[in-house]
Amino acid sequence: MRHGVRATLGKTGIYVVCIFLAILSIFPFYIMIVNATRSTYEIQQTAISLIPSDYLFSNFKVFENKPFSPMKGFVNSMIVSTGATLCAVYFSTLTAYSVVVYDWKLKNVFFTFVMCVLMIPSQLLTIGFYKMMYSWGWINTFAPLILPSIAAPSMVFFMRQYMKPALSLEIVQSARIDGAGEFFIFNRIALPIMKPAIATQAIFTFVNTWNQLFMPMILLRQDKYTMPCMISLLRGDIYKTEYGAVYLGLTLTVLPLFLVYFALSKYIIAGVALGSVKG
Fold it and tell me: I need a labelling partner for 157 at 20 to 30 A (CA). Which of 2, 7, 45, 128 fits?
């Protein structure tokens, strides 16, 4: 009897802690959404309020007086983030596939080199990267923000570690015996097995690319700014900052990230469940 009571209390404690952590995680986003409906004066008077106000459309009108369009920034961010995510996920998985499946002389040296690239801070390459993009005529285009994601060392490492126990080399050999081509094997056998890892890395890459501010501000002009760049322009002049509009812009920036997470989270949960069953 005592054991059953202790188990019940233990489960109750776990639920209480999980609910508390969930509320703690959601609370900042709720405050951000509420502040998007409030005026600058209300935000300055009370920074935290749980009750929405009625200044949402007034905050939208602030965007009309700015030399940029939030919808265009949203589209630009979506193009850059989606393109970078697709390139990073596909080519990183392909690179990891070549390291795991094929046996070639410099395989370990190549993988060591990939790991060494992780040690180089990206800020050190900014000046040289800008000069190269300028010489190629790619300034104020989305190509410098999308194509470099093909080389993602951290993702290659993650995909390799996941693929080694998940992908059976016997399946690959059987497919080759049946006459399947290498790209057919990769696209039809390896990629479906890697869905949980792909979903996880897709979320991280999309979020990081969407929130990028430094490189887009350097490489793009105002007509092609992404959403974070446009939000940075909402600081106003030296006399006044429309905080309600800033919070509204932040809300519009965060919403796609939630949609991407909810769309891909089921694959992560499925991968965890599959791993527990195998274990």
Answer: 128
